[in-house]
Amino acid sequence: MTTAAVTAPVAPSPGRPASLRRRRATGLAVCVAAVLLACVASLAFGSRVVAWPDVVAGVLHPDLDDIAQAAVHSRITRTLLGALVGAALGLAGAVMQGLTRNPLADPGLLGVSSGASFAVVCGIAWLGVSSLTQYIWLAFLGAAVAAALVYAVGSIGREGATPLKLALAGAATSAALVSMVSMVLLTRTDVYDTFRFWQVGSIGRASLGEIGQVLPFLLVGAVLAVGSARGMDAIALGDEVATGLGQRIGRVRALGALAAVLLCGAAVAIAGPIGFVGLVVPHAARRFTGPDHRWLLPYSATLGAALLLAADVVGRLVARPQEIEVGIVTALIGAPVFLMILRRQKVRDL
């Protein structure tokens, strides 16, 4: 498909900067409030609905002999993971759309999800990997290698890593890796039962220790993403203009891609491949911030956290006392939005 350029940043008129900043700051505060509300809902709702006093007690000083407070205490890790993974995917999606100037870019564009899936299925099939702690690192390694391969292939030629070449290299790599995953599963049917629980995408099976293992990667990725914001604003104007403004395009794209790999790889490793968050959230954020990445990135992180937590709550409520995994819920939400984006951008096939 062709890459439809993300709208280039337009400088506000001299009389508007202060009011524009106030509106954006107010909007960001509303987004943070939405995350807090989603966190409360995540703690309160599930197979058992917990009253507000028990939510507070279960967080601050839980009595584990009390069923309601014990339920809240058991949901804290899930809520923390949902907020972190949602923020990481939203932030990574904004970075990837900015780097490629492609409004359809998401964390799958650089082959991160498919690379992680292939590494995990190989680890289960041939290395005897059976615990989440073990295949976190395999997933992260697979994601990083796949993204590096996509960037290397997309950089071939005199023009370097252009948006179109990166998109095509990512699509080809993802398709090849998905086929290889299917090949392994077809030849090793005993692997499927273990792999499918990770592949569906869930935030309900990790521990605080496992979150601690991926947290440094998420933090470093977030810092690199925010540090690349000004460079991505220049890239939105076109590579030639960005170079004329003094930006080192190769360096900005390399750091941005590294940020996306760290964020996506860590999120996918611990929660599985959760789709559409990285695609939908930046589009929603851009309606409030415009194309300025200094505001777009924090909006995307907070909206991503709120969306993933809300989707997880919905999955727990609609199938009580069972639950629908969050990866399925986000797909149901994201697919119609994806179609709307396609119609709006009038994307054509090559």
UniProtKB/TrEMBL annotation:
A Gene Ontology annotation in the biological process aspect, one of them, is: siderophore-iron import into cell
Provide one Gene Ontology cellular component.
plasma membrane
Q: What is its main location?
A: membrane
Membrane-topology annotation of the record = Multi-pass membrane protein
Keyword annotations from UniProtKB, A to Z: Cell membrane, Membrane, Transmembrane, Transmembrane helix, Transport
Protein family membership:
Belongs to the binding-protein-dependent transport system permease family. FecCD subfamily.
Q: What is this protein called?
A: ABC transporter permease
